[in-house]
Write a structure and sequence with these properties.
This protein is of the alpha/beta class. It has two domains: about 160 residues, 3-Layer(aba) Sandwich (Rossmann fold), CATH 3.40.50; about 80 residues, no CATH class. Helices cover about 40% and strands about 20% of the residues. The chain contains ten helices and ten strands. The strands form two sheets. A six-stranded mixed beta sheet has the order 6-7-8-3-9-10, sandwiched between helices. A four-stranded antiparallel beta sheet has the order 2-1-4-5, covered by helices on one side. Helix 4 packs antiparallel against helix 5. The longest helix has 29 residues. The chain is globular, with a radius of gyration of 20 Å. It binds adenosine-5'-triphosphate. The site of adenosine-5'-triphosphate has 11 residues, from strand 2 and helix 1.
């Protein structure tokens, strides 16, 4: 039996009296592009925060590569291969694009005692070289060579989102969590971003969990989709199954749920 890369088991998260997540469970396999959708306030970002370690669920368990990480700190989770981007940009706006990406890498290496030891016994140059090569690969991949020296805060919104993705990718995560990567983008920027996400998944082999409101993109590029509503999982399946699900259509698209409707004869 293959072990899922990520296994979320019946997690519940409360903020005082508010139930942000109620017994949500799902698994993501290596190589999947898995999307989470749902109306505003459904609990999508809270769920991502539980996976990255920012929030701690009161109940349930989260396993990564078969190990229980439910109580691990966010930095430890980043070091074992869970990367993320944020709904609102989280770049150092006064720093260059290159430095923003390097910061992520240094953070990763700082967590790695072995590379730390190498530094002291003279392997620093080789390490630094590999380090820079990786960053250059990421810069090439995301087509941001032309702005590598620019101050991040001066870039257009679409480009800043791309730099933020570059910083997360430079950490070489096994699993990357994308919180609304296309929010606020125009059509062209969205198309570009969708292509980068698909390439990351198909060519770089990264497993992706994405929250996104643009249904066209979600249904187009996801392997599987999960739907949250009021902190509960209401559906999970292939894009076409989700689109055809009457409960989803009602909760998410605001359409009437034929299963819940009264027969015409009775309501007349
Ligand atoms: N730190 C927090 N403290 C208190 N309540 C919170 C906190 N974070 C989230 N919530 C609440 O939890 C619920 C779920 O919020 P969450 O941001 O996870 O939803 P979402 O599905 O990501 O929404 P959106 O699509 O608007 O981003 C909301 O009612 C929200 O107000």
């Amino acid at each position: 039996m293959t072990t899922a890369l990520l296994d979320v088991r019946a997690i519940s998260l409360r903020f005082g009296g508010l139930r942000a997540l109620s017994e949500v469970g799902f698994s993501v396999n290596s190589g999947e592009l898995f999307s989470i959708i749902g109306p505003n306030g459904a609990g999508k970002t809270s769920l991502l925060n539980c996976i990255s370690g920012r929030y701690s669920p009161q109940d349930g368990e989260i396993r990564f590569e078969g190990r229980d990480i439910t109580r691990q700190k966010p930095s430890k989770r980043a070091a074992i291969g869970i990367g993320r981007t944020f709904q609102n940009l989280a770049l150092f706006s006064h720093m260059s694009v290159l430095d923003n990406i390097m910061v992520g890498r240094h953070h990763l290496l700082k967590n790695n005692l072995f590379t730390g030891a190498l530094y002291w016994i003279g392997g620093a140059q080789k390490e630094e070289l590999q380090h820079r090569r990786k960053v250059e690969d990421v810069i090439d991949f995301l087509d941001i060579q032309h702005v590598r020296k620019a101050t991040a805060g001066t870039l257009s919104y679409g480009l800043r989102k791309r730099v933020e993705l570059a910083r997360a990718v430079a950490l070489e995560p096994k699993l990357i969590l994308l919180d609304e990567p296309m929010a606020g983008m125009n059509l062209e920027e969205k198309e570009d971003m969708a292509r980068y996400i698909v390439d990351l998944n198909e060519e770089w082999g990264m497993t992706i969990i994405m929250i996104e409101h643009d249904m066209g993109v979600v249904m187009d590029i996801s392997h599987r989709v999960m739907v949250l509503d009021f902190g509960r999982k209401i559906a999970e399946g292939l894009p076409e199954e989700i689109l055809a699900n009457p409960h989803v259509r009602k909760a998410y698209l605001g359409e009437e749920d034929p299963l819940l409707e009264e027969p015409e004869a009775l309501s007349a």
